[in-house]
Amino acid sequence: MHAWPASEVPALPGKGRDLQIHDTATQGTITPAPGPVARIYVCGITPYDATHIGHAATYNAFDLVQRVWLDTKRQVHYVQNVTDVDDPLLERALRDNLDWTELAERETALFREDMTALRMLPPQQYIGAVEAIPGIVPLVERLRDAGAAYELDGDIYFSVESDANFGKVSNLDAEAMRLLSAERGGDPERPGKKNPLDPMLWMAARPGEPSWEGASLGRGRPGWHIECVAIALDHLGMGFDIQGGGSDLAFPHHEMGASHAQVLTGEFPMAKAYVHAGMVALHGEKMSKSKGNLVFVSALRRAGVDPAAIRLALLSHHYRADWEWTDEVLEQAVARLERWRAAVSRPDGLPADALVEEVREALANDLDAPAALAAVDRWVDAQNASDGDDESAPGLVSRTVDALLGVAL
Hints:
Layout: E1 21-23, E2 28-30, E3 37-42, H1 53-71, E4 75-82, H2 87-95, H3 100-117, E5 125-128, H4 129-145, E6 149-152, E7 155-158, H5 174-183, E8 200-204, E9 220-222, H6 224-235, E10 240-246, H7 250-265, E11 271-277, E12 280-282, E13 285-286, H8 297-302, H9 307-315, E14 323-324, H10 327-344, H11 353-364, H12 369-384, H13 393-405
Parallel strand pairs: 3-4, 3-10, 4-5, 10-11, 12-14
Antiparallel strand pairs: 1-2, 6-7, 7-8, 8-9, 12-13
Helix pairs in contact: 4-6, 6-7, 9-10, 10-12, 11-12, 11-13
């Protein structure tokens, strides 16, 4: 599966600062120490309703991570998956009388278009669950043969008790895990499981649903968590720098994936940091496919909204914060974009070297994009109120905003 084209990232003078970021597992701020190549895995979409603002906010956060690392003169190895077969996708295809593969391909293509328009840097590997199946099957077999998985009516489950470090990603108690498991795709009430929290690794073929040959596992399809584990281990290996996604993925998805990988490899942890973006609401409720209260990037673009304004609306909220999308949020972003573009359109202006460092400092501090925007606002306000004579300043501001915030002026 191919990703989307990369926009050019302008080079800035000097060198950026090392990223400090909040780690869900340790519940504190850490400074990852990647080598010359920083490694990041971000969980991708299940392509049946793409791309809503909640998606865009999450991928914007991890795009900032890449930009901060690139500014430190590192390379970035970024991997993202697409869960192009799963129950929600099959249910939506059935509801809309569509072939599930056509639905997945259509929504994935739309996602690529939106990511391109928003200037999100693409992953080096963009891998679908279906194409990953040949690598998933041996991992499930290894877990089963090691006694870390068991069969129940043809399905294969992972035993969470096989990992001594289970629970160290989300830091939740058993009851909270059980409630979230039921809410987020698990089946804690299924009779016969060794532990209610045990997640499915391989689902035996069901009538009328797609399935694949799974060698000794029989025909079926992979569970959600093992999909990301297989892709991450194949392309990044253990101990990669950041595992990212929305805050709703901390449990069960990232917790279960970490346990799968740790049992498979005997190493801990799977990722050096688990980083999670907040949720976006609409009309007082979390924006979600199940509720249908979605604002789509593609619909905004069709309505004539500049993608740069959409991105500024996302950047106006800290990535870890839960926030609400409103017309006012977008209107403020449109007005900000107009002010910034007007300021950098002048042939000269106030010196901007200090601004570059302010933006770098803000983003290195747990991706504080609102502080970065405020710094640019101050330069713009001063630029509009003065007669600066630095001919290089407007261009430097434009390059800084593009390189570090992904906004083209």
